[in-house]
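Data card: per-record layout.
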Amino acid sequence: MKKLIIFLFLLLLPSIFAGVALYRYYPADSKRLIEMLKVKIVTLYPPLEMYIHIQKPPIKKPIPVENSPKRITIPKIPIFINSEIYEAICGEAPKMRLSDNFTGCGFCPKYITKVTNDKAFTFLFSYRGSFLKKGEEEALIFMKGCSREDENGTAIIVRNGYGGWNRQQIFQNILFDSPPLEYKDENGLITYVGKRTKTTSIDIHSELISLRFSKNGIAEKILFSANLDTGERCNELLQIAFEEPIKKNATQFQAQIEILSCKKGFLSGAYKLSFNLEENGFRANAETAKLMTRIEKYGELR
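The structure for this 302-residue chain is written out next.
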């Protein structure tokens, strides 16, 4: 028995020396190995857990809501590329890189001018939805450069079918100062609201309009219009300027206007126009309707 104990001691002596050296010169590694060994022993023999202390990882405290990082969601905006839309818009196969984003044609297509010319047909912006037929995958693409007047644009409706995107309808002489607001009515069809401005040598005429595109043409409604005299002298008309409409929710938008009156400050000041989508059309709310009535009757005042 004595010889057996001496034999086991000599057998384990190198391991003991190695463990002492590891603990002396590499304390962090040795502690990690010891913890791993203790976990292994407790896993094999669970009753020993009451005698062997195992370090448990600290519990992470939840981050307070006010201090937690905000999650930013980037909207997925579908962008047309040349391979899917170029031929439908330009009337011929693309001669450029198919994977590039569609930016327009370097010419006016024949279906617009009957004779192809070198005037650029430039892409402005597009919307996806149902425009001509409910439930169809369609897109309304606004282009510029081949209208009779330089400031006017062209709207083209394309539909995605078995052969890809195909041209369905063309609307010319469309004018928006910037991309319009988009609203979906109770039938799932889309109406647009925007501002358009025409400048002459004597005044600036602005209109707040709503547009709906259909196979029968464009249903346009002027919701509000205003003139701003470019002359230095104040005349008998109200001078009105207004900003781009702002979307408030799925059925409402507002526009800020500024009124200057030459009749002892009558109506002068800043106002907000508010419109609601009702029965597939936009209608001014009660306060805006009263303001518009006062503006219309301004010329009757003496």
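Known properties of this structure: Residues 65-76 have pLDDT under 50 and may be disordered. The chain has three domains: 20-58, 78-175, 176-302.

See the next section for split statistics.
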